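## tool: complex_structure
## caller: assistant
## args:
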Amino acid sequence: MGKRITIDPITRLEGHGKIEIFLNDEGNVERAFLQVPELRGFEKFSIGRMAEEMPRITPKICGVCPTAHHMASGKALDDLFNVEPPQAAKKIRELINSAFMAEDHTLHFFFLGGPDFIVGPTAEAGARNILGVIQKVGLEAGKKVIDIRKKLRGIITKQGGRVIHPVCNLPGGVSKGVTKEDRDEYIQIGKEAIEFSKFTLSAFKDIVLKNKDYVDLIVGDIYKHSTYYMGLVDENNKVNFYDGEVRVVDPEGNEFVKFKPDEYLEHIEEHVEPWSYIKFPYLKNVGWKGFVDGKNSGVYRVAPLARLNASDGMATPLAQAEYEQLYETLGGKPAHNTLAYHWARLIELLYASERLLELAGDKEILDPNIRTIPTSLPDEGIGIVEAPRGTLFHHYKSDKNGILTDVNLIVATVNNSAAMCMSIEKAAKGVIKNGKVSDGLLNMVEMAFRAYDPCLACATHSLPGQMPLEVKIRDIKTGEVIKTLRR
Amino acid sequence: MKNIILGIGNNILTDDGIGIYIVNQLKSDFVNVEMITTSNSGFGIVDQIVDYDRAILIDSILTGRNEIGDVNVYFTNDFSNHIPFSIHSTDLISALKISKIYGMNVPKEIYLLAIEIKDNFTFNESFSDEIEAMKESIYNNVRVSVGDILKC
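## result:
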């Protein structure tokens, strides 16, 4: 008798999504899906508005990566109005984005993905949270997390105008320069963030890499997919979060293509499935071959591990050393191990902190020339940045008055949607056998997508309420609920 | 007693912005009380209420168990058995627990004034018809509740 297991809603995932797992008569996994059952329709909401509103509106799509949306939107407006921001403005934007990346990666490790390893993959659900992490790593570590998070958010607040929905980006630059006093403070925060990153990497190595069971899990086959990888790189092919060209490497690590933002539609297409509102982007010049990996499948991945795989290294010294250690440990580049996203994320945390310090220490950032006033008529603009969860595309078209006529966003998580489905199915097949479905096993399935740090863009806040995880096991023939598990 | 009132929400998500709307109205009623409108959550809210004696948080809620427009007062203890919702920024209750562990000076009194809404998912700068029709009475209910709390 076939069965269906539903994980709805998924815990620790922003937005709405559910996992459906279908068991065959033997109780083994036949298929598994990550479904997004609701359509947001933000692009339509934007059409007819003034283009200049977009940097203020797009951050409100969600409360998770508002700063990245603000950056992509600001860059899209530069392009739309055919204007080049002064160097100081670019550096201020990158400084804010670096602070945001460092803060977000910190939160993911300690709050979202970290509990899987630090507390344990099969630990009781109620313990797999930040409080469980603090119990495990000690009170002092928790204090460091709270402290650095607050300081990094302070930079976003001061330079961005508002922490949760920044307002500083304008076509051609930013609205506020950096004072010498603020710069000195940012330098201090950058130094502290580097120390914090080193501490976090050290904790990861002690808790995860020294635990054979965890290492086996990371390098094991159930969390592995051989795909293409995408990320922004600078002129030296080093990881860059704010600017550069988009580089894609094939599953063997060879450069497949490197393209400029305005060429993205020549390389990316989106596949649609009837069972989900989320689209499945793929490499147009490889083609959609279904939810499969390998060189013949256009499925690609983005976000931390993908960015490292798609680059030739990190642009800062400490992060570069960690980058080399990661590939040495995992047996070469590219690394296809999905759970290694956690490690890559911490290397990026270190890079973001180092870059923050570099930018704060750059005298040019004090230059009061922070805006180039647009003088040409608007037409079309594309802005691409790296968000914590991957490459983020904003594409606007407007009439000559700057009223938006077409908007296309490829949100970071969406790039990983096909890979997430594949990872969930592979993990489910690996851990659910003969109908045996425990809470711990289901968490191991969830770990497959949590490594991507997915965000399905929900409201910016919610009053605390019950948000239970419900797992239903159904008779596939009658639809009858055989068993219900709740957390 | 040092008081702060927060209006919480996202004003492009239909009724989600009702807390912000109400607090903007309240500013002329309680001129000596500090008020902030915010889209923050979790630790972000703790950052804004730390070092105050009393915080009143005005937000929307969608339970489906109340009439649309109902205003209910909750205390943090009412959520003691909750499961965290947003982990990227952690939820308010966990953030408060952690803040207390580290001896942060969080308010001794925290009131959550929750307005039952219809829709917090659709991108729209206007309220739903139901909330639009009731927003003045909701404001009056909240104003009375806030007045009562501040008298204590």
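## assistant note: Residues 87-118 of chain A form the longest helix (32 residues). The CA atoms of residues 247 and 258 of chain A lie 4 Å apart. Handing back to user.
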